[in-house]
Amino acid sequence: MSLFDDFLNPEEKPEQKAEPQGLSGPILAVDIGTVNTRAVLLDVVEGMYRFIARGESPSTVDEPWNDALEGVYKVIEQIATATGRQFIDGNGDLILPEADEYIGVDLFVATASAGPPIKTVLVGLMPDVSIRTGKRIADSTLISLVETISLADQRSTEEQIDALLKADADLVLVVGGTDGGAVDSLRKHIDMVSLAYSLMDVQGRPPLVYAGNKELTKLVNRRSEDIGIRVITADNPHPTLERDEPGDVRFQLASVFHKQKAQSIPGFGEVGSWTEYGVFPNTLGFARLVHILGEINNHNVLGIDLGSRSTTVAAHIEHQSYLDVMSDLGMGQSAHHLLSQVQVEHLERWLTFELAEPDDLLDYVWNKSVFPYRIPVDRNEMEFDFAIVREIIRRAMQESRQNWDEHRSARDLPLFSTILLSGATLAYTPHFGWAALAVLDAIRPAGISRLLLDPYGMASALGTIAPGAPTPVVQVLKTGAFLDLGLVVSLSGRARRGEVVLRGSIQPEGAKEAEPFEVKSGTIACIPLPYGVRSEVVLHAHRMDIPGARRKWRADIEGGELGLVIDARGRPLRFPRTEEQRLSAMKDWQMFMQEEAQV
């Protein structure tokens, strides 16, 4: 399998499209977010591509600017000031390709998550086949399903047409059938959709993406000509029942994403004109990067991108890639949606203090929705923030796992060798222990995982650059695109609280002897390790297991920001029975993760 099979138009896969000839100059990537616009610059230093500079500024998509281009200009100007390079010409256009030393760039890509999701009607056949596939595809492209019509729909044709008209959709996605299979049921759906379109105002007819049985492609095109709508055809994601190939549909939806945003958000069109394919959803870039990490290292990778409006979960499990976007779960505008999905007690359980007023936490959540730029002003508000983080990620993981094929019903997570974290809330903290602890609490990984943080928002940029320039991406990954928080060892099983469940030793490179340590059940320990220095680690578990390694593990590892993290709280994670014990445990867990107390 190619690194990019799941996320690219087949015509644009790396094995069919060579890297741009002579690409050896700077690469600029911009991401237009809901709250912030970011840019990163990559360039060759000592024969290898490296991360050179970044810019970040509040997004200008909304009032008072209402122009995405203004924010893009600001972050490019920041990089220009830092590097002495000129990017924009006198007409306000990006200088592309590089005109001279320190003038212009050789490659530019743009991604975005700003603006509301694209409202979509999904039309398909069987709920457990085409509709399920359609939802998986929609969940990967910042799309919000506002109506679903299938063979299981008990409504009459007239009621379905009425529902489609009332949906006021930005897009209609039709999927279903296998190539060469029966066509009658899908033809009836196409007839129904065509009739609904004919009843719409001409100016308000949304584009239609057809990704069904290819035998009906000509029929769909004829109907579109008759009623005057734009049709985008994509390869059938289920050409046979055994094959699941959503890549081309995702690519076509990404193209629709650019066109829809360009029509509704000023400045998007101008930014897209500097690229070959327009502005892509940053979710696809993020997922592609997770896929690349998995293929390069030949292991399972989990990626979590916590945004203001949405949360993305990308997983690479046994060479199969999964991508889900929860468009109603985020740390900003979408924060209040969490309250309809979890009980407030689930948020309160992560606090180390009792609320002064019962509604303090609820008020904070609503304020996050109204004022997404708001940052915590004290430790209590930091705890509020990271209580929200835990429950958003926990909910996002629950929803995402439903699409993980044979892994969706398993009690425990698959073993992930790498966990990549992205998003401003996770990256901009007083101490990286805040982010690490919140993620461990939310996803509860098992076994041994390397925890990486994306502090510069480079993941989606690298994933978007990769199809046209895979070599620079691999080189930047090797030279340090992400911050290494450290290795996390999560024990499974149960033991009496306070009982020693793991003994180990660490011997840094050059040290004369190993340093022993012990970890007790119900605790988290951060064992200090010099950052980037290799050390021999030996672990012996007692009464609990190290998933994937059983009870003994020996390896040479490099230290991260948090050293070596041992999570001995067991799996499944259980809270102490009394409120007093819970408060005490939460304080201890935070102390060890944020102060790196030595055991």
Protein architecture, described:
With 599 residues, the protein is α/β, with parallel strands linked by helices. Among the domains are: 23-112, ATPase, nucleotide binding domain (Nucleotidyltransferase, domain 5, 2-Layer Sandwich), CATH 3.30.420; 118-264, Rossmann fold, CATH 3.40.50; 491-599, no CATH class. The chain contains 16 helices and 22 strands. The protein has helices at 68-83, 127-138, 157-166, 184-198, 217-227, 247-264, 268-273, 282-297, 344-348, 360-370, 379-401, 424-427, 432-443, 459-465, 470-478, 579-595; strands spanning 27-32, 36-45, 48-58, 107-112, 118-123, 143-149, 171-176, 208-212, 231-233, 280-281, 301-306, 311-317, 320-326, 418-422, 447-454, 483-490, 500-508, 515-520, 524-527, 534-541, 552-558, 564-567. The strands form four sheets. The protein has an eight-stranded mixed β-sheet, sandwiched between helices. A five-stranded mixed β-sheet has the order 3-2-1-4-10. Strand 17 (500-508) and strand 18 (515-520) form a beta hairpin. Helix 11 runs parallel beside helix 13 and helix 13 (432-443) crosses helix 16 (579-595). The radius of gyration is 25 Å and the shape is globular.
